[in-house]
Amino acid sequence: MTNKSAVIPSSSPPVSLRTWIGVLASMLGAFMAVLDIQITNASLQQIQASLGATLEEGSWISTAYLVAEIVVIPLTGWLSRVFSLKRYLLVNTALFIFFSICCAWAWNLNSMIIFRAAQGFTGGVLIPSALTIVLTCLPPSKQPAGLAAFAVSAVFAPSIGPTVGGWLTENFSWQYNFYINSIPGLLMLTGIWYGINPQRPQLSLLKEGDWWGIITMAIGLGSLQVVLEEGSRKDWFHSPLILRLSIVAAIFLILFFWIEFTSRRPFINLRLLGRRNFGLASIVNVSLGVGLYGSIYILPLYLAQIQQYNALQIGQVLMWAGIPQLFIIPFIPRLMQRIDARFLVALGVTLFATSAFMNSKMTYLTGHD
Fold first, then answer.
1. Residue 1: which pLDDT band, with cuts at 50, 70 and 90?
2. What is the pTM of this model?
3. In the chain, N or C terminus with fewer CB closer than 10 Å?
């Protein structure tokens, strides 16, 4: 089943080693940022006990990271033009390492939440920047290899996050969930500094910034993320906090969409969603992201609270979600040259949906039959 118009040509100009170093360094950053979304899930009980937090309070350790990350990701494209991509990446990578170490040194729950939010705000920059570097630094025939590397960070990293976190917690301590970012972070700094060409910053864009769009987006997405993360624990709209934040999210997101569709210079061109391929691809990506990150978040909680697994056992279970990806991802660039990418996406989404439905039937008796 081959669609010639969708197959990537195999011939291409050579890509220098220096460029590949820059691309792989950016992938390492995206991998770290995504890994840190899930790395604490298997260790939440130990972190909560160390900080003197309850289960409900400890949930903000993950929520703070995600809220900050979801707010900064849409801003990254514009801010990388303002400050130049290379400089913006270097600064945020250095800050990501710094705030990771601060998380390990957190002395109470409030300090942990603040440091996790700062870590998410800087780590969120690393994810879209990696994709930008693939699309701007590599020729079209080499982009499937770059996108496969990006898939490692987007899909494989959250699958092994609880495994890595559980192993580090059981063999060392939960603080090493954050210390682990130091060495890869330094490697990324070196690779970005060497492999990415410098660009001139465009500080004049700050005067022309779509500030009302940015403000409404930040408030709307931030509120929505808290609702989605904390809603189930607070009985949804029976909680005054969730009810108020839902209203805030609805109002500000409506304003955000109105501003972006009517502004002459929106910082996010939402009109692109009207293009069939881009719009459908966005729907698929959002749906897959909800399913993937939702399942990777819920499953460790189920194993810890219902099955009474420790951090290492949780990691060992979730490891089997990541191992197949590790073997399949290297073949994706080759397959994209020979098979219609739409077929590959449809097959992957179908397999993932089937596995999600199978997991939905798990109870406290699962594994004891």
1. very low
2. 0.76
3. C
